[in-house]
């Protein structure tokens, strides 16, 4: 039996993982503990699964470390939302425990420092983000020369005038049901920007070897291209249960019928479209940050988080999000790259202050 600890158990990813356990989809897995930042659902879940719970922020390292020692997991699902998730990832790494990592911000904020810590402590990182999960599993079987990341395009892919976008409209994602932060990021394509950075760092691919294509159906989760030009893709319905259970149980570990079969004999269409740099400046900027320093990626991630919070609380307009992120990234570009966690936290604080002042 694999003992599973879920961080951020009450959110969208956490709930999908909990539902997979309820349905008995991961027969080799037993829940051993759950955390969340504040949700009242947590004690209920704890009672249902007879496991201890902890209210903690991602950067609450001492509390999290003690909870990891108390619950003794074999694998930890980091389903925390936002840049605070890096602290939690580092706590897991320092216990040398494999991490099923949904919190993409950990990779973007922690960058090469986080990845070298994972190596140093032999803590395996298994991506949960559907695109990175697809790439990770495809790469086990084939050598990739190029990565092709799919993007649904979000709710505004066809909308020209973004002047009066409401919070409700931006929260209405066409293919995925997710937490608020990632849903707004999907509307600006900052989510795809974070994913391009995540892919570049996780798989050590330079930005010119990573392509993004708009694929509205969210069925092709991503693809890899070999030197010969063959393209291998992972297809499944848009349901996070598959990447989550694959990361926790592992491929070929007895998982069965995790998602509905695709209706090939009835037929369905898959389309791929290019994307426009001027319409989606945050995706273009994410590529640029990969040619800048680690500090610019921290600035990108944190200022986007600030801007999304400001939009959700009605302080700024939807169309202000990209310019706040751009201004923060360029104002911090000349600063030196952080080399350790405390320097990352300092850079995060600078980005937060800079972006707040622009809101
Ligand atoms: P969510 O907002 O639905 O849930 C977040 C969970 O984390 C909750 O349990 C909440 O209590 C906890 N949390 C929030 N802030 C915290 C903090 N500062 N410290 C500790 N815990 C905190 O978010 P989500 O949509 O489930 O996304 C979680 C992560 O997974 C994000 O990094 C997101 O980008 C990534 N992701 C999500 C999806 C999806 O389908 N939802 C898909 C791919 C990747
Ligand atoms: Mg994704």
Describe the 3D structure.
It is a single chain. This protein is α/β, with parallel strands linked by helices and 359 residues long. It folds into three domains: 2-128, NAD(P)-binding Rossmann-like Domain (Rossmann fold, 3-Layer(aba) Sandwich), CATH 3.40.50; 130-239 and 261-280, no CATH class; 293-359, Rna Polymerase Sigma Factor, Chain: A (Orthogonal Bundle). Helix content is 45%, strand content 14%. The protein contains 14 helices and ten strands. It has helices spanning 12-22, 41-49, 61-71, 85-94, 104-120, 130-139, 167-170, 180-188, 190-203, 241-249, 281-290, 294-312, 321-332, 341-358; strands spanning 2-7, 29-36, 53-55, 75-78, 99-101, 125-127, 146-151, 210-214, 220-225, 231-235. It has a six-stranded parallel β-sheet with strand order 3-2-1-4-5-6, sandwiched between helices. A four-stranded mixed β-sheet has the order 8-7-9-10, covered by helices on one side. Strand 2 (29-36), helix 2 and strand 3 (53-55) form a beta-alpha-beta unit. Helix 12 (294-312) packs antiparallel against helix 13 (321-332). The longest helix has 19 residues, at 294-312. The mean pLDDT is 97. Bound molecules: nicotinamide-adenine-dinucleotide and magnesium ion. Magnesium ion binds at residues 129-131, 195.
